[in-house]
Amino acid sequence: MKKKIIITGGLGYIGTELCKIYSGYSWNDQITIIDNRFISERVSQIRNWNMNFVQGDILDKELIYTHCHDADIVHHLAGITDVPRVKSESNHEHEKKIKKVAEEGTQNILDAINDKCKIIMPSSHVVYEGIEKVKNDIREDEKTSPVLSYSKSKDFNEKQLKASGKNYIILRLGSVYGYSTDTARIDIMTNFFSKMASQNGTLRLFAGGIQVKSLVPLIDVARCFKFMEERKDLSSDTFNLTKDTVTVKEVAEICKKHNPKVNLRETNDEIPNMGFSLSNKKILKTGFKFLYALDESIKEMILKWSKQDLIKDLEHIRDGGNEFIDERGKISNHELTEPINLIGLIDSKKGTIRANHYHPQQEQKCLFTKGQIIEIFQDILNPNSPKITQVVNEGQLSIIKPNVAHTMIFTKDTTFLNLVRGERDHKNYGISHTIRHWFVDEAERDLLMSSYKFECRSCGNIKLKRVVSLGYQPLANNLLNKKDDKCELYPLEVNYCENCHNCQLSVAVDPKKMFSNNLYTSSTSASFREHFIVAAKSYVKELKLKPKKSYIIDIGSNDGVALKPFKELGFNNFLGIEPAKNLAKLANKNKIKTFNGFLDMKNIKNIKKNADLILASNVFAHSDNLKEMATCMIQLLSKKGTIIIEVQYLLNTLKDLTFDNIYHEHYNYWSLTSLTNFFKQFKVKIFKVEKIATHGGSIRIYIKKDKNTKIEKSVNKILKEEENFGIKNFKTYQDFGKKVYRIRENVIKNLKKLKKNKETIIGYGAPAKATTSLNFFGISKEIDYIVEDNNLKHNKFVPGVKIPIYSKDKIAKKKPFVLVLAWNFFNEIKEKNKNLAKNFLNIKDLEKE
Ligand SMILES: [Zn+2]
Questions:
Q1: Ligand 1 centroid to 461 CA: how many Å?
Q2: How much is the pLDDT for 423?
Q3: How far is the CA of 527 from the centre of ligand 1 (A)?
Q4: What is the three-state SS of 481-500?
Q5: 563 and 590 in contact (C-beta within 8 Å)?
Q6: Dihedral angle sign, alpha carbons of residues 823, 825, 830, 833
Q7: Which of 216, 319, 431, 603 has the most C-beta neighbours closer than 10 Å?
Q8: Three-state DSSP class for 452?
């Protein structure tokens, strides 16, 4: 049978939740909401739910009669809720109003309804606030003792209902708590504490927080109103509706558990009583069940209100949560940060571009149901902010903050839902919703589509997470011959694989563009030469290599720097493999036999096998086709032979914040953990590890194919160290990213200060890392020129920032201020050039606050 149901105060805290419950019944019952406020979004929502909304006051007798005289059910929730909690807050006028609304308003309803109507009204535990001693489990028939105007009017209401002769239900609510999507009662203790906790605030515990309270979850309160409406057998009765009995201090401690940053402070402030609790035996006996819990509700409120929870990134990608999987398939949910009123269904063909715009006010939310995109975005409020790319896969929700320019490049045929709040139409590029901002063209699309690396090079995982974005950068070693030579820019960004803990760049630039004419000659550096001399001697001894018999291969042999010491020790059976033509030529000229080319399946036929030792120093980071290279190395190795790989150590990069070790030639960033995961698939063993000093911290790993190889202690020791450091936690990588951005701010600030006082600042050294950091910092005019020891680099320009590179002869008589860019050779450079400069400063020192 169709029922006529009235909800007074339906826009309030409890009313909002009750309306949601009734939205499922409005197809059958006639539901009317009466409230003296008008909240347009809520009202339109209520009307969309096929419920009536009447803006009106319960003091309006005629209006109440019109709507209530033929009602079957009245949920009477209207009333003034901002009430004083202690005597000192009372004010006469306000108290009179509370009393009038409560008493007259309720009487108007009682007068209007007929005898068959059931009126369900909330009362409050506060009707017992006059109790002086702590009293627990107060039952419904215990004598009330109201003190303040609110409890007095609630007590009066109870008596009105009982005397009316109408069918009534009184629900004496404990202190209601819980998150509501629309309205929140922050003045309620539990909610107030949760809100303070979400802001890392201080919770003041009046009288030490000893007061006992009865609490009840909001949704369960709304559910109970519906329950009482349905239960015809329950009539003209009073029920306590409470769930938890706790002290104020206990509530505060739950808050602290969920946010340890909260402070608890005990004070001597006035409390109206020592506390009490209501018994819920009677309500439980009716069969009503509570579904919500205090701990979970507090956690939810803290999380949803917390500042930390607000997304600070310009762009944010989320996987669906709360997954439900069974034989039929999968359900996943995305909770949105704000209501939406329009959904656009957008299909896009592979290779096309959309957007190139920003939204001044709206957050952009797109849910991808099929396909994949590369998204490019840039903060337009900060003019020098880097351009960032990110992959969004199907099933993910992408959220972009207002005033962030964005463009989508569709790498597959793609479908997504555009979830919009506010008005929007296809041609609306006006001021209100969408503003055109061209910042990605077709050439850039082609570059990204051909170079982007969607999956983990080591394990194939496609859900990679962002560690840091250093913006679009030129290829670090490709110095410009002329200042205005064109150079391609690629994103320089590190991603992390949660599956195998490998880190790699978001793009893989064609190696031919980087390695075919390498200007970096290892032998220029005395410390490198020394490093390889010491290494060769120790390998000969440890691996029992024989000058006449042993065959040694060095991959990425550069100018022969690692093989030369072997030659000097009397070895003549060795081969370098080097892709850079100029370097291979140089090595061959110096009688270090060198094959010019990459180590791949095609070239391996031309390389002699059965090596006793294969060296790969600083090349393992440089390989896009890692698996192919590793396969070739293992094929070239003799049964008992050893592979020794030296690679920059990710742990040092993360710890020492040496982000300038990141450049396009370095495709991969390794830890022992990720190397172990990588080599597992080739059935070879890492049996020894050493930490070495090159490149600001590297590791050297020893590998054998021989199954009987004993694994030395060093392997497990370093694996354990890495785990303790957090190598398997994404947060470790995120923190690194944040610190790198702080460094950028510091350097810009410090260099400006320095420049104010110095006339000439010159840089020393133009290694790849200098290109990376100068471009990331956006430093160009601040440095007059750079001097370099390597004469191949002279009279060229650092790409991107276009700073010229000269020989030391350029330095004039007037001694300049020298900023050492090749910071890992700081002492060597300073020692050698004492008389050239006034002062030497390591660029690393500018990174500090
Ligand atoms: Zn992986």
A1: 5
A2: 59
A3: 34
A4: CCCCCCCCEEEEEEEEECCC
A5: no
A6: negative
A7: 216
A8: strand
Interacting residues of 575 by C-beta distance below 8 A, sequence separation 6+? 551, 552, 553, 554, 593, 594, 595, 607, 608
The whole-angstrom separation of Cα 743 and Cα 696 is: 18
CA dihedral in degrees (748, 752, 754, 759; nearest 10)? 130
d(CA 138, CA 157): 19
> Within a 10 A sphere around the Cβ of 790, how many other Cβ atoms?
16
Q: How far from the centroid of its chain's Cα atoms is residue 537's Cα?
A: 48
- Residue 422 is predicted with a pLDDT of 65
- Tokens at residue 203, please? 């919770």
Q: Where are the alpha helices (DSSP H) in 357-419?
A: none
Residue type, 354: R
Token pair 């694989």 in the structure block, residue? 497
Cα 249 to middle of ligand 1, angstroms: 47
Q: Which residues pair with 396 in a beta bridge?
A: 319
* Closest to 206 measured CA to CA, from 177, 246, 247, 244: 247
Ranges in the chain, pLDDT < 50: 309-311, 428-430
Half-sphere exposure of residue 225, counting CA atoms within 13 Å on the CB side? Answer: 30
Q: What pLDDT digit, counting tens, does each position of 16-64 carry?
A: 999 989 988 888 899 999 999 888 888 998 998 899 999 999 999 999 9
Give distance in angstroms: CA of 351 to centre of ligand 1: 26
Q: How far apart are CA 167 and CA 153, in angstroms?
A: 20
CA 585 to chain centre: 48
Instruction: Quickly list DSSP for 612-624.
Output: EEEEEES-GGG-S
**What is the Cα gyration radius of the chain?**
36
CA of 533 from ligand 1 middle (Å) equals: 35
Q: How many CB atoms lie within 10 A of CB 192?
A: 16
State residue 762 phi and psi, 5-degree precision.
-115, 155
E-assigned strand segments in 714-815: 761-764, 786-787, 805-806
Residues 6+ apart with CB under 8 A from 338: 363, 421
pTM above 0.90, yes or no: no
How many whole angstroms from 733 Cα to the centroid of ligand 1? 15
Q: What is the 3-state secondary structure (H, E, C) of 175-192?
A: EEECCCCCCCCCCCHHHH
Secondary structure of residue 773 in the 3-state scheme: helix
CA of 635 relative to ligand 1 center, distance in Å = 24
Q: Which helix (H) or strand (E) holds 221?
A: helix 218-230
Cα→Cα distances 584→558, 599, 616, Å: 7, 14, 16
Distance, CA of 34 to CA of 7 (rounded, Å) = 6
Q: Distance from the CA of 643 to the center of ligand 1, in angstroms? A: 23
Distance 617 CA to ligand 1 centre (A): 22
- Ligand 1 centroid to Cα of residue 456, in Å, is 5
pLDDT of 430 reads 46
Ligand 1 centroid distance, CA of 459 (Å): 4
Strand partners, 30: 4
Distance 669 CA to ligand 1 centre (A): 12
